[in-house]
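Why should sequence recovery work at all? Because a backbone constrains its sequence more than one might expect. Tight turns favour small or flexible residues, buried strands favour hydrophobic ones, and helices have their own preferences. The token representation captures these environments compactly. In the example below, the structure is given first.
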């Protein structure tokens, strides 16, 4: 509508004026993803977002996603102005893993290598030996296991259990979860599969093990989009945030995408899984970030923490390169 168009035009002009670029996650609103691509910015999974921001020459990064993504960008490129549409966009994994408690957990097992998911605060990353995202976690843990390392994993217990199962590594798991993926239900998914016997099932590994067990493909958001293209099935049941449907449908215009059911929703679920914090990223909020900057939008990371957290973050980027 007219209001959205006005925001889009203003954002385009402001991006040029401020030498800024939009870096968006697949779970943000379709109009944000479209605008990021149209203006030379980027849409991707959390690893790709970190990589893009790190390599781009713009003076200002507008990170459309949640706080840990903004913090990772600032840790990697402190010379840039890193802005977010809202600083209130959190993540249940980050919130459920306070740095002091996590540090105590690590201190109790000093002989373990500490691997943390990117969905954590800078302070938790600073306590870690490695940072991983869902697209690279399996390879990194495989590598550490081959060196005989025992691992402390935090904070997502479902992703941790998935990696433990697939690598056989010795892992102590922090008990956190993503409020969106934790809601997917194996029972309801089995009912849905019975309705659509020819459909393939795509699952993000932040989902419970019982849901992952029903998957034809498991992976990060980017990996699931790739699987959607590669699988021969014409119908795909997708267990991740519904924001992914925008890009996935563009990539497989001839396929039918169905949202996987959450608990209680049954096999007729529609629009069940959407992250409340990702949903805070709107066009108006992006425009505000570009106009106002400052304390309502700018990411700051304490320099001592930044220097410490850069080490495990860079380890991941170098491993992935
Ligand atoms: P990926 O995009 O790395 O798969 O991460 C998913 C996620 O939970 C981001 O919030
Ligand atoms: Fe965190 Fe889950 Fe939201 Fe991703 S979808 S930001 S993991 S709460």
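From this structural description, the recovered sequence reads:
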């Amino acid at each position: 509508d007219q209001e959205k168009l006005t925001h889009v035009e203003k954002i385009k002009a402001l991006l040029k004026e401020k030498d800024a670029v939009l870096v968006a996650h697949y779970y943000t609103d379709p109009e944000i993803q479209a605008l990021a691509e149209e203006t030379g910015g980027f849409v991707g999974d959390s690893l790709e977002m970190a990589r893009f921001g790190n390599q781009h020459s713009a003076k200002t990064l507008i990170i459309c996603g949640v706080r840990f993504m903004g913090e990772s960008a600032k840790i990697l490129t402190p010379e840039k102005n890193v802005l977010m549409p809202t600083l209130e966009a959190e993540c249940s994994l980050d919130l459920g893993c306070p740095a002091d408690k996590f540090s105590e957990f690590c201190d109790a097992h000093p002989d373990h290598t500490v691997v943390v998911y990117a969905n954590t605060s800078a302070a938790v990353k600073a306590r870690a030996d490695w940072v991983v995202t869902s697209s690279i976690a399996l390879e990194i843990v495989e590598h550490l296991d081959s060196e005989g390392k025992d691992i402390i994993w935090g904070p997502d217990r479902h992703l941790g259990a998935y990696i433990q199962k697939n690598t056989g590594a010795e892992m102590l798991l922090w008990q956190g979860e993503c409020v969106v993926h934790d809601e997917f239900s194996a029972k309801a998914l089995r009912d849905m599969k019975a309705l659509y016997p020819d459909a393939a099932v795509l699952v993000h590994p932040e989902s419970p093990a019982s849901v992952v067990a029903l998957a034809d493909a498991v992976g990060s958001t980017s990996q699931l989009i790739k699987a959607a293209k590669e699988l021969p099935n014409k119908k795909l049941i997708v267990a991740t945030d519904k924001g992914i449907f925008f890009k996935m449908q563009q990539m497989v215009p001839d396929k039918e995408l169905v949202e996987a059911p959450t608990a209680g929703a049954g096999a007729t679920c529609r629009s069940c899984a959407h992250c409340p914090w990702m949903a805070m990223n709107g066009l108006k909020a992006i425009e505000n970030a570009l106009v106002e900057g400052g304390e309502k939008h700018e990411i700051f990371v304490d320099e001592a923490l930044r220097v410490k957290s850069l080490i495990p973050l860079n380890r991941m980027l170098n491993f992935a390169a």
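A few observations help interpret the result. The radius of gyration is 19 Å.
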